Amino acid sequence: MLLTERKRQMGKVTVVVLALLLLGAETQGARQKIEDKSFQDPRIHESLVATPGGGLTFSLQNSSSRSVTAYILLVKMPGLVAQTPRFVDSIYALHMSSVQEGWMAGPNQTGNYVVIPDVAAVRVPAPTEVSLLAVLFDDGSSAGDPMWVSIMVERRKARLQVLRDTVKMLQAAQANNQPDRLLADLQAKVAGLGRRPLFQKQPDWVRWDAQYEIYQGTVGTLETNRVSGVQAAVVIQALLREYSKSISTLENSKPSLSSN
Questions:
Q1: Residue 21: how many CB atoms within 10 A of its CB?
Q2: Which of 167, 172, 179 is nearest to 234 (CA)?
Q3: What are 110-162's pLDDT values in tens digits?
Q4: pTM of the entire structure?
Q5: Could you please report the per-residue DSSP string of 42-103?
Q6: Which of 45, 56, 109, 147 could form a disulfide with 116 if both were Cys (CB 3.0 to 4.6 A apart)?
């Protein structure tokens, strides 16, 4: 009697385990389905490539005679309410590493952006959507959603404006030999930004990001080098070279940012 009851219980357990395994298989299958709502344009062909290590790479094939200088990817992750697009912009960047340069696509070339690296594949779930929203080319032409095209341009304008402002502050500190005043003024700029705007307010959001990145980044550079014993004058001169180069790149980019 006891043996019969035990078999009955074991049978129930087996059914439950099988049900859970089937549910897991269905869930895994659902996760593997990644939506693609990318725009359609004959110059651009995009695809997702699963790597042998379990990662995920976005492939951007550029069939035009112009280089891609920027694009926006919407990568939606499961369980997240706010889905912030990923900006990839060689004009906006202060520096482009060899890896970042590989994200871009020259004429008739392919850029590859890592959505999920192999090392994180075990811990990070597959996205529910990966969509290309907009692209900018080096001649100022574009493809994709006009709203996102304008946001990419606005983002560059915001970067240019804050770099110009910071350069003026650096030059004043250099001329008057007042590095401490410079640091205090930059910290006040950061504090004055307040809280980051909601992403839904895109123009405000990209402007806030541009200002915070440069002002706070400059503060961090000055403080780190001061602790390391590097003379403030040397750091200021290096920042002036770096920021002036970025300003020149933005000023000569297309579409023109001259309205700012």
A1: 10
A2: 179
A3: 999 999 999 998 888 889 999 999 999 999 999 999 999 999 999 999 999 99
A4: 0.84
A5: TTEEEEEEE-TTS-EEEEEEE-SSS-EEEEEEEEEPTT-S--PPEEEETTT-S---HHHHTT
A6: 56
